[in-house]
Amino acid sequence: AIQYLATYTPSNLHGDSFPFAIEAVHLCIIFSYYGVFNLGTDIRSRGSMLCSDIVHDYGQNFAVRDPATAFEYYCLAAEVKGGGYVSIIQTQGQLLRELLNQSRAFGTLLGAGGSGSGAVLSKLKPDRQQRQDIIVSAAVGCVQNAQFHEAMELFMHAGKPFNALEIINKRYSDAISATEESQGISIDDLEQRGNAALAELEGQADVDIRSKREETNAFEMLILTRKLFQAFKESNYKECFQLLPEFAFLPIRSEQVSKYASDAGNLHIAIKEKLPQIVKIAGIAISEMMQERRAIQRTPTAASMISSSTQELKMRLHSLALYAGYVKIIPENVATELNIILNGLI
Question: What pLDDT band is residue 95 in, cutting at 50, 70 and 90?
């Protein structure tokens, strides 16, 4: 009967005019509120889904011109559909993501920032934890649909900077390269978002300390990696060389190689993805510094000092070549190239 009412058009009307749709929508909400769909398993499974769709479809009419009203109906559609708390929250999160895609009304729906801020969601869901759960559900949906920008925004709104930082680190790693320019990703914007996430994360005690440290260190290392890559693109090998001490996971002596190679498996995934380029640049930078120091030999005393320094650099390059050969995630050609460079300097 409700379905008929929602789609009934009197004979004197034409087109897509359904004058009784609003009555059908609110009958669905009333039936759900008074537990009509709980009278039997079959009634619930068919009736609640049908009525949920009717309420949702009606709400879609307001998605662009009045997203606040649309979201109210979307929340009601989730409640009409039923299920436990988790099921309803997941549906409301899914519908929030849908509405944000339709309207882009982040400010209207979520407010200026934080799950405790004003706006529509706060009015509809006074409970802070419930609001946070809905936003997190929407953010997870964004991640699953590769909407990473929106996911970062939503996690920050939900007061989940750790989750936002995880995405930022992955996106930052994808964006930086020693040979190519980033495509469609603003690295400066990611860096600003990362710094904002770090600032908020500092005051949170509910995040595992080790996990927090790993994501924080990864972000800071990615910033250094970006500087290394940029210096390499500019053929500024001296700056590349000066940055190398910051990459403490790279060996400088042969006796360190075995342990450092074993530890490479524990590096953050965002750093692992850039490790081959980092190692290659480190080797090239060391070789360039060796050649530069050889070229400036003048007096016997200076020659003796430079020769000692060059030997240290050669040992360092040799250790790096061994490391590249031992670490499975580094392509074989990187170790080969470093060995060729090393042999050319002997």
Answer: very high
